[in-house]
Amino acid sequence: MNIVVVGTGYVGLVTGVALAHIGHRVTCVDVDKEKVDCLRQGISPIYEPGIEPFMKENMDAGRLFFTTDGASAFREADVIYVAVGTPENEDGFADLTYLKQAVKDIAAAVTKDVIVVTKSTVPIGTNHEMKRMFAELAPHVRIEVVSNPEFLREGSAIHDTFHGDRIVIGADDERAASVVADIHRPFGIPIFHTDIRSAEMIKYASNAFLATKISFINEIANICEKVGADIEQVAAGMGMDARIGSSFLRAGIGYGGSCFPKDTKALAKIAANIDHHFELLKAVIEVNNKQQRKLIEKAKERFGRLAGKRVALLGLSFKPNTDDMREAASLVVARELLAEQATVVAYDPIAMGKAAHVLPKEVIYADRVEQALERADAAMILTEWDEFRQLDLSVYVKQMKTPIIFDGRNCYALDDVKTYAIEYYSIGRKSVK
Ligand SMILES: NC(=O)c1ccc[n+]([C@@H]2O[C@H](COP(=O)([O-])OP(=O)(O)OC[C@H]3O[C@@H](n4cnc5c(N)ncnc54)[C@H](O)[C@@H]3O)[C@@H](O)[C@H]2O)c1
Fold first, then answer.
1. Is the CB of 340 under 6 A from ligand 1?
2. Helix (H), strand (E), coil (C) string for 377-394
3. Predicted pLDDT of residue 34
4. What pLDDT does 137 receive?
5. CA of 167 to the centre of ligand 1 (A)
6. Which of 146, 147, 232, 331 is the most buried (most CB within 10 A)?
7. Once rounded to an integer, what is the mean pLDDT over residues 81-85?
8. What is the DSSP-derived secondary structure letter of residue 138?
9. Buried b (16+ CB within 10 A) or exposed e, 60-75
10. Angle formed by the axes of helices 126-137 and 196-227, to 10°?
11. pLDDT digits (tens, 9 = 90+) for 354-374
12. Which of 81, 19, 29, 25 is nearest to 54 (CA)?
């Protein structure tokens, strides 16, 4: 199979490398020349554990290529995967500009029949619209469109690609569906065949459901704080019920990233456009917006005013093991602290390069966690990197002016914290004073 993947971001790159690894010849196309130059040298423009050796292995084996020359790649392709971004636009809907451009680029280049597989998360009806565009722009060839939504998680994307729970293939055309199923068969993951609209909806509904679980447990955590229960105990007890399941029951300062925030808003918008007011999902979004500010609230309660306080921000990416800063809680927290006239000193093991482009310029960056904590009045843990979870708690005592920790990810056991002269505020648990 001659496969082309359009877009070499978090999804496209991992998809391309994984498809090459199971034996296909894969050409990854991107419009970003700098990215492609990097990739050709075996350097990944994104941080994803394990990706570089995996890329190199498949490049050396002559199965994986990178180019900006989409037209040549599309001409040779049997199957084209589209994995371009579908960010949020101003009204909260998915912005399909990149996707439509990819459709136009493909239509202008192809000279033989081809299957286009949509990995990008797109609103219900988009794949049919793509099919209509292809019929109009490339009437000389037959282009079948298949929806194949992606469920990988950044930070464990390679593992997820090889050990996912299901591969969803939404198609109107049986032959196209079976070609795509055959491509994915070596992964050994159950394949779920469905129609295109249902496949598109499965992606949004899955993300909305997971986001709901997160906002739900965060609300329970907020109540736990007030009634003296412990959210870790509550979540453990709930999770033992197989009907509930233990995943996505970790209380914290809410979800971020490139998917949940935009996909929940897009689904609420999709519903609103057909006069369905998705009240539950709107509440999930609202709860999350509040939850991202939770540590600021706690700090204000503790200090009164934050002006002049030196605050160490530990963790900037939206979750550990990624450098992705999209919709990270750190963006909200840093901005609010600066608005309160606090001094913000930030540290992240991986994401500081990307963070510097998106955080306010007043943020000071530290090279090491110890340096970030030096003379700090308070520390705020925003991302549960192992480096913080495993940090000897005496470091806080040694480095900080006052060892006061606001932990947005419940990194430490309360019994451990109690053995140090640390003031500790976490989510859904008793404070340690
Ligand atoms: N990131 C995730 O964890 C994740 C998980 C599941 C689904 N998704 C979905 O997958 C899609 C891609 O997400 P991402 O995070 O990989 O995006 P990304 O922004 O990291 O990457 C998109 C890439 O597409 C390239 N691009 C844009 N237009 C192009 C064109 N016309 N031709 C060639 N390249 C083009 C960009 O230069 C960029 O490198 C989105 O729809 C997203 O919602 C993402």
1. no
2. CEEEECCCCHHHHCCCCH
3. 97
4. 98
5. 19
6. 147
7. 98
8. -
9. eeebbbbbeebeebbe
10. 150
11. 999 999 999 999 999 999 999
12. 19
For residue 93, give Cα distances in angstroms to 51, 90, 283, 319, 365: 31, 7, 17, 24, 34
Residue nearest to atom 7 of ligand 1 (CA): 150
191 pLDDT tier (thresholds 50, 70, 90)? very high
Q: Establish whether residue 32 lines the binding site of ligand 1, counting it when its CB lies within 6 angstroms of any ligand atom.
A: yes
Overall residue count recorded for the chain in this entry: 433
Tell me, in angstroms, the distance from the centre of ligand 1 to residue 6's CA.
Answer: 9
Structure tokens at 201: 């909806």
Which domains, from first to last, does the chain contain? 2-194 (3.40.50.720), 290-425 (3.40.50.720)
pLDDT tens digit string along 332-349?
Answer: 999 999 999 999 999 999
CA distances from 355 to 216, 261, 262, 332 (A): 29, 18, 19, 13
Token pair, residue 307, equals 């002006």
Q: Has residue 279 got a pLDDT over 90?
A: yes
CA-nearest residue for atom 37, ligand 1, is 32
Percent of the chain, pLDDT > 90? 99
The structure tokens 């990819």 sit at: 102
- Whether 289 has a pLDDT exceeding 90, the answer reads yes
Angle between helices 279-291 and 260-273 (to 10 degrees): 150
Q: How far is the CA of 215 from the centre of ligand 1 (A)?
A: 26
Does pLDDT of 293 surpass 90?
yes
Mean pLDDT, rounded, for 26-47: 97
Measured by CA distance, the residue closest to atom 17 of ligand 1 is 85
Concerning whether 28 is annotated as a catalytic residue, the answer is: no
Catalytic residue (one of 28, 224, 259, 411): 259
Using the atom order of ligand 1, give the atom closest to the CA of residue 13. 16
Q: Report whether 365 contacts 351 (CB < 8 A).
A: no
Which residues, including other chains, have CB under 8 Å from residue 186's CB and lie 6 or more apart?
22, 23
DSSP secondary structure, 230-255, as one string: -HHHHHHHHHTSTTT-STT---SS--
153 annotated ligand binder: yes
At 1 the pLDDT is 86
Model pTM?
0.96
Q: What is the pLDDT of residues 385-431, one digit of tens each?
A: 999 999 999 999 999 999 999 999 999 999 999 999 999 999 999 99
150 Cβ closer than 6 Å to some ligand 1 atom: yes
